[in-house]
Design goal:
The chain is α+β, with helices and mostly antiparallel strands. It is built from eleven helices and 17 strands. Strands 9, 10, 11, 12, 13, 14, 15, 16 and 17 form a nine-stranded antiparallel β-sheet that branches. A four-stranded parallel β-sheet has the order 3-2-1-4, with helices on both faces. Strand 11 and strand 12 form a beta hairpin. The radius of gyration is 20 Å and the shape is globular. The structure holds adenosine monophosphate. The site of adenosine monophosphate has 13 residues, from strand 14.
Amino acid sequence: MIHKPLEPNATIGILGGGQLGRMLSVAASRLGLKTHIFDPSTDPPAGHVAHSVTTAKFSDTEALKAFANQVHIVTYEFENIPTKTLDFLEAHCTIRPGREALRVSQDRLTEKLFLQSLGLNTANFVDITGPTTLQTALRSLGTPAILKTRQFGYDGKGQIRLSDPDDIPPDVNSLLDRPSILEQVVHFEREISVIAARGFDGSIASFDPGENIHQDGILRTTTVPARITVHQKTEAVLHTAKILNALNYVGVIGVEFFVTPNNLIINEFAPRVHNSGHWTQNGCAVDQFEQHIRAIANWPLSDGHRHNDVVMENIIGDTTDVVSRSATDTLSALHLYGKVEAKLGRKMGHINWISPKN
Ligand code: AMP
């Protein structure tokens, strides 16, 4: 399908109004484009900077129809949009990245089977259908292993680590009433992610892979460049391109890898801009947000060139002192998301600590 490039003042609809929608809106606005946020919550962070906001449930078809009629193209900032919402919207407007990328990434089982069908490595896993299966699976897969819900998990939510088939903690029951998989723990050297984009014409541009540190399942820092070999970097980018092409993808994707001495193992991918790509805001002339807007607007992509080394530090839960702390280094950039209530584990902003490229 050929689409004309979006013209100045065109409106991009964004499903979800969190910090990613906010930063996408800022990027769009810098390019002379408008955004319209659709989010069920009142006062979403993206609403502060977007041209317009619809506050309605994702099941509200009247509101969705009105939204579709006011925008030129629709994108999304999180992958757990109900599939019915997308089916409904797709009849009224173009959604980028397409429906297939969401379908595959919304379910860990579907995602792993898709990756394996492309010849890419995933952690060994077993599909879990009940408590007996869990014990048997733990024995066959080996411990430690991680029980993960197939859907709606993020930031380590919906996951429990298990180390003994004969001592399964009672809190697994809260997960087992939903479809789940059991994943072998990968003993990785490091975690990296590739943020890349594919345009309407099939062109692909990748940013340099970032090295990620997680705590309690939540991303804490991303460091660029990652401590990987040229071969590992090339492989990671090629694997990402394979995924992009297989999905006939348009937009930015984030692919997370475990790096082991012999292998790159894909943990998961997110069909959207990604927290581990926030470093690009101060490490590249065109960041991941602008790159996504360019891709879905059918504009030429940037080549992803990096001009600085960056450590991106997430500000989680507590914002005390971040303004003064970031001011200790003139080569730092503070990004706050406008969230009023600082809850435990809530991403409030990030700081990009910049240093000259080595
Ligand atoms: P996820 O929600 O699947 O991205 O998991 C969040 C984080 O938990 C990952 O970034 C890893 O640090 C850790 N993790 C998840 N799955 C595995 C695994 N199979 N082996 C080792 N660590 C894992």
